[in-house]
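anyone seen this seq b4? input:
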Amino acid sequence: MPPSDDPVALRSAPVAAFFARIMTHQMRGAFRAVRLLRPGLPDLPAGRPLVVVANHPSWWDPAFFIVLHARLFAAREGYGPMEAAMLARYGFFRRIGTFGVPDGRAGAAAFLRIGEHVLASPRRMLWVPAQGRFADPRERPLGLRPGAAHLLARVPEAVALPLALEYPFWTERRPEALAAFGTPLVEQDDARGWARRLEEAATAAADRLAEAAIARDPALFVTLLGGRRGPGGVWGGWERLRAAWRGERHRPDHRPEEP
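predicted toks r here
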């Protein structure tokens, strides 16, 4: 593979770590909290490459992938696809493990070729927004594109890990960033079998997350990042002054919780 197309050769660990800090800061500022549905990350077989197969509800998904990777998969090298035209505009993403996928059949071939190369090492993992388009998190069926299934059929040692994401508003000014992992899939199959199993497992994860998101109970989640709290602005300042005047502890949230 030419070095200019090889995400493994182009990826820089220091640049990836620096960008993870930036994305962590961005998500802290944009969300009330970043939360992972309990019981959290399931046990994964050791010594095998990993493919995270996710839904695609928001522009924030790649940032969420980066934060989850930094928090939960720091021992692995992370990679992921991006539209080739977008990557051409933001070439620095190549330094964090992103590779370009053009439209059409050429893009499908490139995804499989590069994906196989990435997954040749058990230390690597691939983050795939498998719907291939922005879609509401409650949309059913998910309609996962077949690329991940074909890739997993070609890499029998890989483990598939379903991931569901949502960004609902609860009781605060800023939304929640919620994630839930599904059951890892390890049994080998052909592309058709993988497609069916991925759709079922990803839907199950999305349904679990939807139920928890509707419940609006932070106790159902592990809080990975505590974000910005309270309404801010004039109203937030008034609440702080009022609490100080009364000699009370200022609680910025409508429903207080531990950060």
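The chain has eight helices and eight strands. The two ends are 46 Å apart (CA to CA). kinda curious what u guys think
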